[in-house]
From TrEMBL:
Descriptive protein name: Aromatic amino acid aminotransferase
InterPro entries the record matches: Aminotransferase_I/II_large (IPR004839), Asp_trans (IPR000796), PyrdxlP-dep_Trfase (IPR015424), PyrdxlP-dep_Trfase_major (IPR015421), PyrdxlP-dep_Trfase_small (IPR015422)
One BP annotation, GO: L-phenylalanine biosynthetic process from chorismate via phenylpyruvate
Top-level taxonomy: Bacteria, Pseudomonadati, Verrucomicrobiota, Verrucomicrobiia, Verrucomicrobiales
Gene3D superfamilies assigned to the protein according to its UniProt record, in alphabetical order: Aspartate Aminotransferase, domain 1 (3.90.1150.10), Type I PLP-dependent aspartate aminotransferase-like (Major domain) (3.40.640.10)
Family indicated by similarity: Belongs to the class-I pyridoxal-phosphate-dependent aminotransferase family.
Cofactor(s) needed by this chain: pyridoxal 5'-phosphate
Keyword entries, A-Z: Aminotransferase, Pyridoxal phosphate, Transferase
PANTHER family: ASPARTATE AMINOTRANSFERASE, ASPARTATE AMINOTRANSFERASE, MITOCHONDRIAL
GO molecular function terms noted in the UniProt entry: identical protein binding; L-aspartate:2-oxoglutarate aminotransferase activity; L-tyrosine-2-oxoglutarate transaminase activity; pyridoxal phosphate binding
A GO CC term assigned to this protein in UniProt: cytosol
Organism: Roseibacillus persicicus
């Protein structure tokens, strides 16, 4: 059982091209007039569409943001890392522990110092006290790197009250929020998943956002994403965009157009795409509920019930490294290092097998 892979899988174990994406591609193939160069900011319709998608139409921060297309979310992270290193080289980037595997290497490669704060379960959700305690060491001007939703690898998301407290903490300590949004639509729905990000964007004059279409449009190999900078006013955001373009020029010049053109089409004709995305989300939620229910039914420890509360494709199971090894050696169940499993990678018939194996490695350590 391969639970390592970081992509969505449907009930048959495939990562299909969405039908709405196929329709967009048919349209683009028939309408393409030229493959001439685009600008350094990439596809402008895409930039506008993704900004409205993440902030929500009518959000006041739309007027004071600038978004440029990047080589997926990874490229956006590096571009923003380079920008921070250029504008404020002594700023530290605070990232969660455990973190998305690429956050630390990308920020370090940009020349920034990285510090961590714990991201773990309490009895009811995110252990917020531990976050506040660790961030006591952060200084004004430091960057707080958060996951917009569906935290990778833990699946632990802040409640709206906790997002509000994060916003206050940033104000009190002079921290700049940086939200990495890679799974919008996989947690509670496209708007609910962006609620924390939208709250921060409304309450802060400076903020960084990185965006990915890999998961919610299933455009993994098309490398489609964006970097957004929110500033105190439109002129400032425009200046920062020029800096981002300079950094992009020295890297790859312009991002590839195909994925962004597909995404722009979907933002303009969202109905079929949002329906397919909702089906993916429901499958992940159902897998979570079924696995938690199965574990409960066979009397596995209560702590596994956090699976139901957690969001998105990943959860970090409360397993020791020897228990992870036993899952592999005795049951051929492969999770990632640290106990991360891809809940979206689970086939329906695999759920009882996984639950049984988890109970066994717990019962006889
Ligand atoms: C938290 C997070 N950020 C960013 C990314 C980058 O994804 P991509 O480069 O495919 O857009 C991922 C991918 O797994 C992720 O989990």
């Amino acid at each position: 059982m391969d639970l390592i892979v970081g992509v969505y899988r449907d009930a048959s174990g495939k990562t299909p091209v969405m039908e709405s994406v196929q329709e967009a591609e048919r349209f683009l193939a028939s309408a393409a007039e030229s493959k001439s160069y685009r600008g350094l900011s990439g596809n402008l319709d895409f930039n506008d569409g993704i900004a409205r998608f993440v902030l929500g139409s009518g959000h006041p921060a739309l007027e004071r943001q600038s978004t440029i297309q990047t080589v997926a979310g990874t490229g956006a992270l590096r571009l923003i890392g380079d920008l921070i290193a250029k504008l404020s080289p002594q700023a530290k980037v605070w990232t969660t522990d455990p973190a998305y595997v690429n956050h630390l290497p990308i920020m370090a490669a940009a020349g920034l110092e990285v510090q961590t704060f714990p991201w773990r379960e309490s009895e009811t959700g995110l252990d917020f006290e531990a976050v506040v305690q660790a961030l006591d060491g952060a200084r004004a001007g430091d960057i707080l790197l958060l996951h917009g939703c569906c935290h990778n690898p833990t699946g632990i998301d802040p409640s709206l009250e906790q997002w509000s407290a994060i916003s206050r903490l940033c104000h009190d300590k002079g921290l700049i929020p940086f939200v990495d949004m890679a799974y919008q639509g996989f947690g509670d729905g496209v708007d609910a998943d962006a609620a924390g990000l939208r709250l921060l964007a409304g309450e802060h004059e400076q903020m960084f956002v990185t965006l990915s279409c890999s998961k919610n449009m299933s455009l993994y190999c098309e490398r489609t994403g964006a970097a957004m900078v929110i500033a105190s006013e439109a002129g400032e955001a425009e200046k920062v965009r020029l800096s981002l373009e300079q950094i992009a020029r020295a890297n790859y010049s312009m991002p590839p157009n195909h994925g962004a053109a597909i995404a722009a089409y979907l933002f303009a004709h969202p109905e079929a795409w949002l329906k397919e995305l909702e089906e993916c989300r429901m499958r992940v939620c159902t897998n979570r509920q079924n696995l938690a229910a199965e574990l409960k039914a066979i009397g596995a420890p209560e702590k596994f019930q956090c699976l139901e509360r957690q969001k998105g494709m990943f959860s970090l199971l409360p397993l020791s490294s020897s228990q992870i090894e036993r899952l592999r050696d005795e049951f051929a169940i492969y999770g990632a290092i640290g106990g991360r499993i891809n809940v979206a990678g689970l086939g329906t018939q695999q759920i009882p097998l996984l639950a049984d194996a988890l109970k066994r490695v717990f019962d006889s350590p």
